Amino acid sequence: MNTFLQLVVNGLGKGAVFALLALGFVVIFKATEVVNFAHGSLVLFGGYLVVVTRESLGWVGASLVGILSAALLALAVERLLLARARSADANSLALLTIGLDVIITEEVVRRLGVTLPFLGEAWDAQPIQIGGITLFRTHLVALAVSAVLITAFFLAFRYSDWGVAMRAQAENREAAALMGIRSSRVTATAWLVAGALAGVAVLFIATQDFSGAGLSRGTHSIALAAFPAAILGGLDSTAGAVVGGLVVGLAEALSAQYISFDFSKSAVFLVMLVVLALRPSGLFGTRESTRV
Amino acid sequence: MTSTPTRFAACAALSAALVLSACGTKGGGSGSSGPDAEGVRTGSGVTATDITLGVMTDKTGVFKNLGLGITQGNELWAKDINAAGGVCGRQVRLETVDHGYKADTAKTLYPQIEPKVAGFVQMLGSPVVAALKQNLLSDKAVAAPASWSSELLDNPYVMIVGTTYDVEMIDGLSYLQEKNLIADGDTIGHIYIDGEYGQNGLRGSKHYAGKHNLTVKEVKITSTDTDLTNIVTGLKGDGVKAILLTTSPPQTGSVAAVNKALGLNVPLLGNNPVFDPALLKSPAASALDKLHIVASSVPFSADLPKAKDVAAKYKAAYREPANGGVPYGYAVGEVWGTVLKKACENKDLTRDGIAKALKETTSAGTENLVAALDFSKPGAPATRQVYVAQPDPGAEGGVRYVKPLFEAAEARDYVAPHQK
Amino acid sequence: MSDVVAEKAAPPKIPSPARETGRGRWVRRLAWVALLLVLAALPLYLEAAWLKAGQYVMIGGVGAIGLTMLVGQAGQLSLAHAFFLLVGATGYTVLSGPADDERVFGLGLDPGLALVGAVLTAALLGLAFAPVAGRLRGIYLGVASLSLVFLGLYLGQSAEALTGGTSTGRTPAAFELFGFPFSNGGPEIELLGVPFRQAERTWYLFLVLTAVAFLLARGAVRGRVGRSWRAVRDNEAAATAMGVDVTRAKAGAFAVSSAYAGLAGVMTALWFDILKPDESEYGTYGINVSIAFLAMVIIGGLGSIPGALVGALIVHGLPQALALYSADLGLFGETGGSALTPALISSFVYGAAIVLVVLFEPGGLAAIGRRITSRGLSRKPPEEDPS
Q: What keywords does the record list, in alphabetical order (chain C) (predicted)?
């Protein structure tokens, strides 16, 4: 029983971070219908700037720089590349982000060289034991931060001008434009937010508690696991992203123990495949209708 | 107006004609020469003045640190042996290529380097060695892989300098039992990277477990997994008394950290590659005290005359921080030197002659950089002796010995997979 | 927005192929024949290492032709290509493997038959995925197909009797046709003083396979099948109205594309002389490979068969060529932390190529090529003149 509880704790802790990543996918998708394959490289980029600036700015300052630079990179990608390819459709733009992902990832990995810097100085590897269950401090902080950010996001989404504009745009782009909503601003903000979420997520990922390794190509692989999280929740559902993240975390933890560890990585993708076969738009996604 | 396709067609046809007639084909010319003045027969990579050995290494991929260390060790050896007059009246030259730990790159580089060399003093990377297995067989080229899996020993041209992962595990378990850290009938966990490396380590622990009625909980992982929290959680539930590791250094760090975090605190036993001094600077550093490392080649800072000699020469020649690859690379060179001398005595420096000399090598000495090696038994590891070491931030190179070279009785009886 | 998704963002319009007439056609044919002649003569001049590199490009070419039909012609985004490569490689090795091996399973078939069998197996598995694929659209399909790569990773590791396991892998039987081995064995052949050994023989084998793959694909794309794929890609509802069986067209595209990937897989196993399943999601049959193939077809121009070959030349050829040149010229001598490597430079090049293609020339290199030739050739505006 203790084993089971511990696994659930492990799974939820990681799921919180997957939710942050998945939310990033969803925000961009809702605003632009583009699936951002470069999300993993945003994560790496933010982490890399933390590594570079940590010496001079200290951990807190460097973390802020990392979050900000991931956000700005995302913004730059949108403004300088995607916005200029207006003629291309969403699928082509998704392919473009694959190309970007390759470039940014290879360059960051090259710059990291052989070092595997850990980013979780403040709380890493200092677990708390409660009644036979170990709580990893990184997971706890990640859960708290995710809860705050996700709540803030939901509130902004519902009540702020940006949220209203974005929902309008997601409903019907042309009508939104007619209502005077500036599509470019909504889109740019969405990328900015997604980049910032990636920058936050990396602070938890590149830790002993979460990934067991510092910033590296592996960090990018982990970001890849947020894909099934976003997809199985439904790419256009923010609530789905949160649920999807937690499902992926739990599926990974439980299948590692009760099926086999080497199956666990495939397990999250298979869960996604099953969900998609039953509900082609994910658990909470909007059903598609065909237009003739 | 000439259209582009027309022009293209004309060009192509013209160049085809040119190519076919004008330039000579690549044919003609190679093959082994006859005996030289001393009556020594020679083959690929051997001229009257030089013996060329190949180095297929990783200078740019995931194992670039290790690759660089081994290559520098190889170079130091070549310098030393040439200063001492070379082998068979010939100077040793190294031909180095970098495959970046990619099997596909290695596969194209191999046909380029193969005709120029007598054999390979270094072939790094188990995917590379696996991809080139057939080539080594058909070209009869002796190669020293920087991989210590006894699965490789079905290839008679493979020269493993040191013992193999399976034997390391057997010796290591006997050490744990000798120290009363495990007992007959216990349950132990073994986390291993699926592949040549991990499977071979697992083979060893299963052998030992069979002799001592241990239950082994096996957990297969891949080389890119780094978070092993869920695995250690499960092993804790199974009540393991020790965890064996045939993993990469970051994975070792994860297991050590979780071992402590969950309050499990069992001893950890790992093969040679599980440890990297960088772990001592990671968040897992404080949890490494439970780790025991078994190895047959010494670390850079070993307290041995020869190791100190190599270390001093290294510091004089290179600026990069050193690693265990340096003394190992030097030791492989020493073994190659022994084999080449034997081939020279046999007056046969052809590939066949070198392979024959390897089989006749029963005690290649490296002045204890590696235990004495015997290559005469097909399929069997060349030695079964290991050291045990533990991480120690105070020691140069990050580890200190806790037990000098020894061979467990269980290791002596062990039959390697391709042992005849 | 759901409507917009359903509209399904077809890849850039690839004009449906029509036949040109007269001089242009003959010139084209002549150019292809000349190219083939040069390729056939290369083994006489190129060293084995370069032949090996060329064969790697041909593997890429065959796989990319298959993918470009699926993604470009039928509009089905797939990241599962690497999985079908693994199926083909495993299929060939199992079918041709010795039947009496106690460690691994084999059927002892003739290698020629095994090759056909492996291609068919891949096609059938592609067909099996079709019902799932049929329900998904666009990017959902792309990511769903990614799960096949992970499935392949798991099966490759666990089905050791078939794949030999990641520990040792297993050796595929050397290819043989009517008793003639494509290895160093068999009769000694020499032409103009050049001994024809494994590298040279395999070159011709791969060249023939690539040529056949190319011609079949061109036939399919120009025929009724191709028309139905493009109809489905452009608008499913309209295609149905036109009498195209959408489900069947999609499933067919998946099967054909998988068959091509299967063939590329067989070639991969023969090229490496070993079948070795990957230890992680990056490897010979990993995500990186799926992405590389996608890069080839995007760079070459979605839907263009010759474009796929050019894409393969860039994505598969560049790293190999750079590695060989670096050995020749002593490039990339720098080592340590942040050295530039042939693989790295190639990644930059193809990453950038994807970005540039999507931004500036959604038709890829094929469109550029078309524009150049049509400008030179004729009066036809490019929209009408096809691949």
A: Cell membrane, Membrane, Transmembrane, Transmembrane helix
pLDDT, tens only, C313-354: 988 988 888 877 776 655 555 544 456 777 778 888 888 988
Looking at the domain assignment, is residue C367 inside a domain?
no
- Same CATH topology for B41-163+300-383 and B165-295+402-413: the answer is yes
What would the pLDDT profile of C282-317 be if each residue is shown by its tens digit? 888 988 899 899 989 988 888 889 999 999 998 898
Can you tell me the distance from the alpha carbon of B151 to that of C169, in angstroms, rounded to the nearest whole number?
A: 11
Structural domain total, chain C: 1
Which pair of structure tokens corresponds to residue B334?
A: 């020493």
In a domain, C134, yes or no: yes
Which 6-35 residues of chain C touch chain B by CB within 8 A? 23-24, 27-28, 30-31, 34-35
CATH 1.10.3470 given to domain A2-278? yes
Chain B neighbours (≥3 Cβ pairs under 8 A) are: A, C
Cβ contacts of B330 within 8 Å, gap of 6 or more:
B73, B74, B76, B77, B310, B366, B369
State which residue of chain A sits closest to B252, comparing Cα positions.
A212
3-class secondary structure per residue, B240-305: CCCEEEECCHHHHHHHHHHHHHCCCCCCEEECHHHCCHHHHHCCCHHHHHHEEEEECECCCCCCCH
Domain ranges in chain B?
A: 41-163+300-383, 165-295+402-413
Please report the ipTM that was assigned to this predicted complex. 0.86
In angstroms, the separation between the Cα of residue C332 and the nearest Cα of chain B is 9
User: What span, in angstroms and rounded, lies between the C-alpha atoms of B330 and B279?
Assistant: 25
- Comparing CA positions, the residue from C40, A174, C222, A1 lying closest to residue B16 is C40
Using CA atoms, how far apart are residues B32 and B43, in angstroms rounded to an integer?
5
Q: What superfamily in CATH does domain B165-295+402-413 come from?
A: Response regulator (3.40.50.2300)
Q: Which CATH architecture has domain B41-163+300-383?
A: 3-Layer(aba) Sandwich (3.40)
| Identity of the residue numbered C309 | L
Substitution target from C200, C202, C276 for chain B, most B beta carbons within 10 A: C276
Chain C CB contacts of B16 below 8 Å: 34, 37-38, 41
Q: How far apart are CA B310 and CA A135, in angstroms?
A: 47
DSSP 8-class letter at C11:
P
Give the C-alpha distances (Å, rounded to integers) separating A261 from A253, B158, B219, C101.
9, 33, 7, 29
Specify whether the CB–CB gap between B382 and B373 falls below 8 A. Answer: yes
A262 contacts C294? CB cut-off 8 A = no
Give the model confidence (pLDDT) of A121-139 as tens digits: 777 778 888 888 888 888 8
